[in-house]
Write a structure and sequence with these properties.
This protein is α+β, with helices and mostly antiparallel strands. 30% of the residues lie in helices and 14% in strands. A 4-stranded mixed sheet has the order 4-3-6-5, with helices on one face. A two-stranded antiparallel ribbon has the order 1-2.
Length: 145
């Protein structure tokens, strides 16, 4: 979705999603969020079967898809154990809010357990990316939420 100046939101078109995600275009990038630095998100073009020649650039759609998939991964008991009690309570509230917001899928969503997105707490709405310093030859971006 994209925010309009009127405060309304519209879905991204296929054309929007197929645009290069950065200028200059890149074929690999890393996205990090300050709340979950233990889980950097490495983005590559989703459709690598492009034939001979250089790899296609990462698109807006590639970035959004990869961030979504990464944040929907279930966390482990070991991840939970590393949290202090205050952070555990915050993550638990976010988990409860997430599955409670889907009445039709309440049980299914609750059964999936705590996910990485829950570690973002109240700051779970994607607002964009800001260029960061490059690491290990990867173009790095900081996720704003």
């Amino acid at each position: 979705m994209r925010a309009l100046s009127t405060g309304r939101f519209v879905l991204l078109s296929s054309s929007d999603r197929s645009q290069p995600a950065s200028t200059p275009a890149v074929t690999r990038m890393r996205v990090v969020h300050h709340s979950i630095p233990q889980w950097p998100i490495d983005v590559e073009p989703r459709y690598k079967d492009h034939g001979p020649g250089p790899a296609p650039p990462i698109t807006v759609g590639d970035v959004l898809y990869t961030i979504h998939r990464s944040l929907r991964k279930r966390t482990s008991d070991a991840d939970w154990a590393l949290l202090g009690s205050w952070k555990q309570a915050e993550v638990a509230r976010a988990y409860t809010r997430r599955y409670s917001s889907m009445p039709q899928m309440y049980q299914l969503e609750a059964s999936k357990g705590v996910m990485r997105v829950d570690y973002l707490g109240d700051r779970h709405i994607f607002r964009g990316l800001v260029r960061s310093h490059d690491v290990d030859g990867l173009h790095c971006w900081r996720m704003i939420s």
